[in-house]
Amino acid sequence: MICRLAIGLLSALLVQACSDSSDQRPTQTAPVSLTVIPIAAPEGAPGEMRSLVFRVTMTAPQASAVELAYWTSAGSATAGEDYLDITGELSIAAGEIESVVAVDMIGDAEEEAAETFTLNISTSDNALATATKITGTIANDDTACETPFARSPNPWLVKGADPLNFAHRGGVIDFPENTLYAYAEAALAGADVLEMDVYQTADNQLVVLHDLSVDRTTNGVGGVANLTLVELQALDAAYWFVPGVGTPHDRPAEDYVFRGIATGDKAPPPGYSAADFRIPTLEQALARFPHNLINLELKPDLDGMGNYEQQMAVLLQRYGRYTDVIVGSFVDEATDNFKAVAPCVYSYLPLGRGLEIFALFLATGEIPDVPEHITAQVPPDASQIGDEIPGDEPIPIVTTELVVAAHNANLAVQVWTINTCEEMLRMTDIGVDGIMTDRPLVLEALLAQPAGERTCEQIDKAGRP
């Protein structure tokens, strides 16, 4: 009896001990996605020490701190000459979702290509890194933009290869347009060129947005030129987006799958943050996509007070973006103003000059030399430019004959806006150099097929083969 009582008491004590021990252990938290966002920054003047700041972001806060260890390693940039190597640790406190890692750059006066280094990271068990090697880009800000670009060779001519896939506004139908998320996803899907429209805000900041107002795409109202940058970036730029459709305003709330990410009401997808679903500045886009081809459209400078074209030129110079961008406008005056302050940047024909040249082509079958521009960005027919060319039937613009004549004049032909697979295939067969599309996923799926065997039969509207 005594033995049985002793055993029972011992068992009870062991159970109690185990229970107490279990209660004292910290609660385990499921890992969240952690991303360090690649970034570029101008190096600065000789002797100046500027910081290239990597943003660390998580999809959700954790109940316990997330620990991050980091160290740099050289790429084309040289440690001690272009930047300072660092090793360190940071802690993202419980309940927080963001932090930063700063790397010092060493400014110089050398005219050189952008240089890169790697930020390596490792994380604690309660966070899963979307990438452990992140590229930092030191942008060349020393080259002046005072001489016209070299027209030959023309790097925008594909010379019989596949046309470049221009993600129009990042892909209006595939992704929430003009957001960093859209551009990143389009680039990951294989788009060759990121197409962006640029407006100036009430406080003279350059933002990436297509419309005069924010009404169609965001949860706000008002004209871009009447709103400050702070007001614009408080909006949800994905508010009205429905995947595969665009921005209808008459769908059930559940169809707007990205709504609320920008405002923090919904977690972002892995690899992204709330900021990726807001209206970005042009500088944020240049910093985020330093190694992607970019097409920039200058929108009208409505107030005429902000030195819009000069501001654009200065920003491109700071990031060393010359031969990997195309800049232009429908507005001839805006194009001319920009060319006057940035002659080294590739540009496309403005609408007025383009119509003059097209009329000459219709009369002679030839296109004259246009030394100040490198490409012609045109619609497939006159229906997309309204009443500029009158007539009952839309006048075809992009034909085999026009493409040949443009190439003879050393102009690349980039056609907009092509959204059906069949029309993409027709433009490819004609031999255009670039296709701007709201559906970069469809175009990428088409071009992924072997040349000569391409068909639209097996590609659905979402761009899946």
From TrEMBL:
Residues 163-447 form the GP-PDE domain. It holds the Pfam family GDPD. Keywords: Calcium, Repeat, Signal. The keyword Signal applies. Gene3D superfamilies: 2.60.40.2030, Phosphatidylinositol (PI) phosphodiesterase (3.20.20.190). Residues 1-17 form the signal peptide. This is GP-PDE domain-containing protein. InterPro entries: CalX-like_sf, Calx_beta, GP_PDE_dom, PLC-like_Pdiesterase_TIM-brl.
